[in-house]
Amino acid sequence: MGEKFPAPTLLIVIFFILSRLIPTMGYSLRDDPESIRLASSDYGHILRENPAAVLYPTSIDDISSLIKFSNNISTPFSIAARGHGHSTMGQAMAPNGVVVDMMSLKNHRPSHASGIIVNTFNLSVNNNNYYADVGGGQLWIDVLHATLEHGLAPVAWTDYLYLTVGGTLSNAGISGSAFRFGPQISNVYEMDVVTGHGDFVTCSPQNNSDLFFGVLGGLGQFGIITRARIVLEPAPKRVKWVRMLYNDFSAYARDQERLISVNGRKQSNALDYLEGSLLINQGSPNNWRSSFFPRSTYSRITSLVTKHGIIYSLEVAKYYDQHTETTVDKELELLLKGLSFLPGFVFEKDVAYVEFLNRVKSGEEKLQSQGQWDVPHPWLNLFVPKSRISDFDAGVLKGVVLKRNITTAPVLLYPMNRTK
Ligand SMILES: Cc1cc2nc3c(=O)[nH]c(=O)nc-3n(C[C@H](O)[C@H](O)[C@H](O)COP(=O)(O)OP(=O)(O)OC[C@H]3O[C@@H](n4cnc5c(N)ncnc54)[C@H](O)[C@@H]3O)c2cc1C
Is the pLDDT of residue 66 over 90? Predict the structure, then answer.
């Protein structure tokens, strides 16, 4: 019968049935205008889809009951987990269905967790096999702070840390550390998942492996992650952060590839991070993406960009601590020796590890203060094979971005190792 109702009536009926048939959810299932408004948009500000209701779970059973209920009615409704809602095309929306707000589980102790309990995190240290059991609705910035209290940190990051563990593990979680450690989905030992049947299942590469590999990078379509066991390593203290500028794309790509060829996880002479970006005529060289060119160099860099149209920036980082502080400069010098960046256009900064990892936050704050954060964000992510990267430069970067003077958004360009 359900499908004969006009849409708004159907929404009311679903909500009415849900809130009565699942009494334990009485207080956590909401359809007030504010809850619906928040769950019907995302960082992309391109799509808007109203759910019938939003579930603010207080336990994993709430999620399981919701899914089982939907499966047992004649017209199941759509259900979407929502982390921090930083998708760009409505991926965490559930038109006419129910959005599950995973961040409400932030203070919930993940079940099946072992080890020392640290606030809502469970952190365990076993024979040099370090890990943290983390709730799917936790923000990576909170994971960082909690693990650092133990001198440990995850090895795989995104550029921006105000994203949830469940949200990035449903995609990939890629940043400048991926050439060496792989994306975040390659740094998970185990997960607890509520499946599409509403069952609570623990999975790993050895146990329920289809579910494990389906959920990782599964775009939220194979189950809801309630706990992930994340790989940790001893945390460094500080970071040598270097930017180099190029006007020749082939020299740039060659240097990027050379640098990521040293990539063993335990290889102490490898870089810890490598990314690249474009400088095009965007006003100040210090655009929103945490640039650190000294003010005295602005006019030199602007002239370079004006002369060549596009300048390629190569950004690398080498972490260090008290044991390596006397050797880090030498190691970095050896790594960068023989690179073909433009003479005189190399810039270095020495920052605390947390400042480096959280570098995009200051950009967000700046855009928030200018009212430019909650605006449409059409984003495109592409993997381009090495064999076509020069064509991509000629056809897209020079042929489209430069020719059409598309200067309002950042363009990131960095190499990955397929084996990772
Ligand atoms: C400023 C900014 C910078 C970014 N930088 C990077 C970057 O450097 N690298 C990178 O890889 N990505 C980056 N992203 C993209 C980001 O990783 C994804 O958009 C991610 O999905 C956002 O996480 P979220 O918690 O906001 O997820 P949401 O947008 O809330 O959800 C994303 C998807 O995951 C699903 N989902 C959410 N939680 C769970 C869960 N617990 N279980 C199962 N499925 C779930 C949702 O249903 C949806 O399909 C960036 C995004 C922004 C806005």
Answer: yes
